[in-house]
């Protein structure tokens, strides 16, 4: 049942073509990734895909080496190629001046990306499920993410070749599946540490929202689906230019502000990383509407927008240092 | 300062034409409505508008009659025409089988609407401010409202002729303004009663979100503005038909699902009250895409959609009883 639902979601709804693909599964040993690995083990031969598992030992807890050995044994028993990386997450966090959670994510994604890049037609498959999506929507609401980003993380991200096959599956179904198959799962105690915003959202905010609407999980899936449809529509509504960072003033004048604002975001993304402030985008748009030729707007990450007579031109100043983009941090 | 900001918002941003308008201010005596009345008292002569105050005595607390007398005295001192209605809110709640909060809202809106309808070019002005909007966004997230409804209540609702001039003003600015002018304000103790979802959102959920992002109020305003722009864009993107409840299959086939889904909602609204389930709309859209002629879908409030060869037709079944529409409940 779970397997067929995941196949219908991944292949039917998201349009993933599994035939001949290699799925690199991010395998922490927690319930989500164990169930993802089990489900994809069933689906891979059926759909003509190839499966491998990737485990990162964060070295943050004394038992992590033993957990890595268990993960390896699990994959050996299931005949799944296993890759392990020992990362000095604490050292990376110090070196970069970031939190342990961010450093762990960096280390994992770097390893997955390395494996994925070395194989033709490979995808990274991650175990995020519907309760993670609910958290992600709240995290984005807190950060002030607009639409359609507010709908939450992608289930199929072609630019980073990431799949999230369990994104419409409630955590309770995953736990029930793991129980029914007696799958061995590791519980990471840091998931309850209130030092992390994600855990505060999970443990303090989400239960209060779920108490108001016991069917909030369905609302989460609905919002996500609407965002996906709207994102596709909005993308299709945006005109294409030879240079996405040089927007002809003539064309802008004929567009609805809803599209102009999104063209600015696209142009800024094309210049490099750095989160744009919506307030600055509103001001820029007001200036564009007034054709305030010569005005220059500054954006984070050393980017600028200059209103010219013919075009609005976005540039990265030389020496402009990119800041990490929040939307990509999941 | 506050007055100029409100004028810029109401007239500049929302496009309200105040000249010759009558503003019926919903005046509870709480800080929001007192400050709204004070601000509009300053703006009315400046903008050529006329001001009246409307107070509903809910009869739920022993002190409510005294508060009504204070409200009347305040308006007399400021030379503002004052209208009062004593409502049996508890009786209305029993009679309709609804909560006290909903019954109070019904009684207030009925009174405001009565006054508004009796005057040419009149608008009801309500004291909702930015913190109410933040609550409204969370309430809508809990209910599972989609985009652009998720952005929150309107500042200018032409269909019901409602204005919310303080919608971009933080509660803290309103309190500071009331303090600075020593305005007499009433505190309704039921605002802290956890029996109401709104109060649980206000007192338990929102402070946790604000703790994660102290600038969440700005994010609220941003999301609201984006929703307003997108709503305008989406409305402008929808084709008009002679009968909004009969959608030509030929036209539907050429539209993006993002627009088709919104056309269904518009058709359902045109049939009468009743909240549509997004799941049913997704199923309907899948059937329309497959041209499943003859299929019929049921919607709350006794409404149906039938896929014909030429058109998708929405109808209210005779005897179909309308349920109150959630989106209108604020």
TrEMBL record, chains A, B:
| Catalytic activity line of the entry | cytidine(34) in tRNA(Ile2) + L-lysine + ATP = lysidine(34) in tRNA(Ile2) + AMP + diphosphate + H(+)
- Keywords tagged on the record: ATP-binding, Cytoplasm, Ligase, Nucleotide-binding, tRNA processing
Pfam family name, one: ATP_bind_3
* Sites where the protein binds ATP: 28-33
Tell me one GO molecular function of this protein.
ATP binding
Every copy of the tRNA(Ile)-lysidine/2-thiocytidine synthase N-terminal domain together lies at: 23-203
Report whether Chloroplast shows up as a keyword of the record. Answer: no
Query: Where is the major localization of this protein?
Result: cytoplasm
Q: What is its EC number?
A: 6.3.4.19
Q: Which CDD domains match?
A: TilS_N (cd01992)
Q: Which SUPFAM superfamilies match?
A: Adenine nucleotide alpha hydrolases-like, MesJ substrate recognition domain-like
Biological process GO terms, please?
tRNA modification
The answer to whether keyword Thylakoid applies is no
Q: Which GO terms describe its cellular component?
A: cytoplasm
Q: Where in the cell is it found?
A: Cytoplasm
Family named by the database record:
Belongs to the tRNA(Ile)-lysidine synthase family.
**Stored PANTHER family:** TRNA(ILE)-LYSIDINE SYNTHASE-RELATED (PTHR43033)
- Tell what the record comments on domains: The N-terminal region contains the highly conserved SGGXDS motif, predicted to be a P-loop motif involved in ATP binding.
Q: Function, please? A: Ligates lysine onto the cytidine present at position 34 of the AUA codon-specific tRNA(Ile) that contains the anticodon CAU, in an ATP-dependent manner. Cytidine is converted to lysidine, thus changing the amino acid specificity of the tRNA from methionine to isoleucine.
> What is the protein's name according to its record?
tRNA(Ile)-lysidine synthase
Identify the species of origin. Answer: Solidesulfovibrio fructosivorans JJ]
Q: Which gene encodes it?
A: tilS
């Amino acid at each position: 049942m779970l397997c067929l639902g995941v196949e219908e979601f991944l292949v039917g709804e998201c349009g993933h073509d599994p035939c001949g693909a290699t799925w690199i599964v991010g395998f922490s040993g927690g319930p989500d990734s164990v169930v993802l690995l089990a489900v994809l083990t069933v689906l891979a031969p059926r759909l003509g895909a190839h499966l491998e598992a990737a485990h990162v030992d964060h070295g943050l807890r004394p038992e992590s080496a033993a957990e890595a050995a268990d993960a390896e044994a699990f994959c050996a028993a299931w005949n799944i190629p296993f890759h392990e990386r020992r990362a000095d997450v604490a050292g990376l966090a110090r070196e970069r001046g970031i939190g342990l959670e961010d450093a762990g994510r960096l280390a994992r994604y770097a390893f997955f990306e390395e494996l994925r890049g070395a194989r033709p037609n490979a995808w990274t498959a991650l175990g995020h499920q519907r309760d993670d999506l609910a958290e992600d929507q709240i995290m984005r609401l807190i950060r002030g993410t607009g639409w359609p980003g507010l709908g939450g993380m992608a289930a199929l991200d072609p630019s980073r070749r990431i799949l999230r096959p369990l994104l419409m599956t409630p955590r309770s179904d995953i736990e029930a599946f793991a129980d029914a198959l007696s799958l061995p799962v590791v519980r990471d105690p840091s998931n309850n540490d209130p030092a992390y915003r994600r855990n505060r959202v999970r443990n303090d905010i989400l239960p209060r929202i779920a108490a108001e609407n016991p069917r909030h999980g369905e609302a989460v899936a609905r919002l996500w689906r609407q965002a996906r449809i709207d994102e596709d529509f909005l993308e299709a509504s945006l005109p294409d230019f030879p240079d996405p960072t040089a927007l002809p003033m003539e064309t802008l004048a004929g567009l609805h502000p809803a599209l102009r604002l999104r063209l600015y975001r696209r142009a800024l993304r094309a210049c490099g990383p750095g989160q744009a402030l919506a307030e600055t985008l509103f001001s820029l748009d007001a200036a564009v509407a007034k054709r305030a030729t010569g005005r220059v707007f500054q954006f984070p990450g050393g980017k600028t927008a200059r209103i010219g007579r013919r075009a609005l031109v976005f540039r990265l100043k030389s020496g402009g240092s990119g800041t990490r983009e929040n939307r990509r941090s999941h």
